[in-house]
């Protein structure tokens, strides 16, 4: 098959590589010419994705994969067009910004050929595939969906850093606008993906047709919103435990020792492209979902809560040199999307602290580009907050933070014994005595 993948980001490029690895001819489209050039050189444009660099070095010279910034070069004659363009959500209003997706859809429509399958993999509010993108494709192409081409929604369900493994591990969900479109999508994804054996799944692993685009859209929103709500509940338990002499971690372990409880871990922030964003897309359709809204607000309040913990342990933060450990939204991933570092730094600065940020995955120049002073382990500091659970932080002690007078561990990974005589606070753990 000839396949076009629209947007070569941290999900789109591995998808394009996966499709090409199965023997298909793949053209990736991206508006970032610098990224296009790097891909065409057979090099990975971003580090940290397992297998990506090796596969690019094999597939690009072999002519199986190339990149372009021109839709006219990629879309005409394609058997399938897979869309992975980012969809943003306004921080203030929580409303989706369809701008980039609208632009990409219009460009696809302009060059769409009869017989093409168009699959949207970007997470969307329910109904968007049918009521927004399909009319755009029809208007721009002059073709009719269900007769001349087919549209499906098939959400990506992978995490950066392990995309290829996740593609094999999880069922591929599809939802068409017609039975014929769904069947085209099934055949397509069975031809471009491999699936691990999953005896734990009654339906088995593979392509799962959910019966409609709307059901497929909701499935992605449901699985990610569940995680945000669960973490919000864990954070509520954590804050209660702090006030009542309880270690919430023991409570959660005990609760989860039977099969009906699956409480997640509390923590300083919920970050990444998915969990903080998709509940807002759900609320776009269901604004009265009080549980979803309350959980999102609870999780957004955790950086402020961590700042209050530090203030309680240290005292007045005016003029204090505070090191924030971790810019990434989670350990071992070089990504700051919706990372807790941003509200945490703001909250500390609002109290007059002099804040510096450390992250083993980022250079000083990269940290400075965010507007932060870089911190180096071994430099004098008054207080510190662990924001990301990088493995490098698990072995830290007071000698690594000379002068430290208080530490808040927002991820529960440091050993209090290494901070003898230093107030050591962990979210969800009451202060001894």
Question: What tags apply to this protein structure?
Answer:
six-stranded parallel sheet; 15 helices; 433 residues
Describe this entry's structure for a reader.
This protein has 433 residues and is α/β, with parallel strands linked by helices. It is 38% helix and 14% strand. The chain has 15 helices and 16 strands. The strands form three sheets. An eight-stranded mixed β-sheet has the order 3-2-1-4-7-8-9-10, sandwiched between helices. A six-stranded parallel β-sheet has the order 13-12-11-14-15-16. α14 links the parallel β11 and β12 (354-358). α9 packs across α12 and α13 (302-314) crosses α14. The chain is globular and about 70 Å long. The mean pLDDT is 97.
Annotate the secondary structure layout.
Blueprint: E1 2-6, H1 12-21, E2 25-29, H2 33-40, H3 52-59, E3 65-68, H4 71-74, E4 80-83, E5 88-89, E6 96-97, H5 99-111, E7 117-120, H6 128-141, E8 150-153, H7 163-169, E9 172-176, H8 179-192, E10 207-209, H9 213-243, H10 248-255, H11 278-285, H12 290-300, H13 302-314, E11 321-325, H14 341-350, E12 354-358, H15 364-369, E13 373-374, E14 383-386, E15 406-409, E16 424-426
Largest beta sheet: what is the strand line-up?
3-2-1-4-7-8-9-10
What structural category characterises the helix and strand content?
alpha/beta
The count of β-strands is: 16
Terminal CA distance: 67 Å
Beta-strand share of residues? 5-15%
């Amino acid at each position: 098959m000839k396949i076009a993948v629209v947007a070569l980001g941290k999900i789109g490029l591995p998808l394009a590589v996966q499709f090409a690895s199965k023997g298909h001819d793949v053209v990736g489209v991206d508006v970032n010419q610098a990224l296009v050039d790097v891909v065409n050189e057979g090099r990975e444009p971003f580090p940290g994705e397992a297998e990506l660099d090796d596969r690019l070095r094999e597939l690009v010279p072999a002519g199986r994969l190339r990149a372009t910034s021109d839709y006219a070069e990629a879309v005409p004659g394609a058997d399938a067009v897979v869309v992975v363009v980012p969809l943003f959500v306004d921080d203030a209003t929580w409303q989706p910004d369809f701008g980039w997706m609208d632009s990409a859809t219009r460009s696809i429509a302009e060059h769409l050929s009869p017989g093409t399958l168009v699959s949207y993999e970007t997470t969307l509010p329910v109904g968007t595939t049918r009521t927004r993108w399909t009319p755009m494709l029809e208007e721009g192409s002059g073709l009719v969906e269900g007769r001349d081409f087919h549209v499906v929604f098939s959400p990506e369900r992978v995490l950066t850093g392990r995309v290829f493994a996740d593609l094999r591990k999880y069922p591929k969900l599809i939802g068409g606008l017609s039975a014929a479109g769904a069947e085209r999508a099934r055949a397509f994804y069975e031809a471009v993906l491999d699936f691990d054996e999953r005896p734990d799944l009654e339906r088995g692993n593979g392509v799962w047709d959910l019966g409609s685009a709307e059901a497929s859209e909701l499935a992605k929103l449901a699985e990610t919103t569940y995680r945000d709500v669960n973490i919000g509940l864990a954070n509520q338990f954590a804050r209660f435990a702090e006030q009542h002499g309880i270690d919430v971690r023991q409570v959660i372990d005990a609760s989860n020792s039977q099969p009906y409880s699956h409480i997640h871990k509390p923590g300083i922030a919920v970050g990444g492209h998915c969990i903080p964003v998709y509940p807002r897309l759900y609320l776009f359709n269901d604004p009265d979902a009080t549980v979803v809204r309350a959980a999102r607000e609870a999780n957004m309040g955790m950086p402020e809560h961590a700042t209050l913990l530090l203030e309680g342990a240290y005292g007045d933060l005016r003029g204090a040199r505070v090191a924030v450990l971790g810019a990434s939204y989670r350990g071992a991933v070089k990504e700051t999307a919706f990372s807790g570092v941003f509200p945490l730094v703001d909250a500390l600065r609002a109290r007059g602290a002099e804040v510096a940020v450390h992250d083993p995955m980022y250079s000083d120049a990269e940290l400075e580009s965010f507007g932060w002073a870089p911190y180096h382990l071994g430099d004098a500091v008054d207080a510190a907050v662990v924001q990301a659970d990088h493995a490098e932080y698990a072995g830290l002690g007071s000698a690594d933070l000379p002068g430290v007078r208080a530490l808040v561990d927002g991820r529960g990974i440091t050993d209090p014994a290494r901070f003898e005589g230093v107030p050591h606070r962990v979210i969800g753990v009451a202060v001894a005595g």
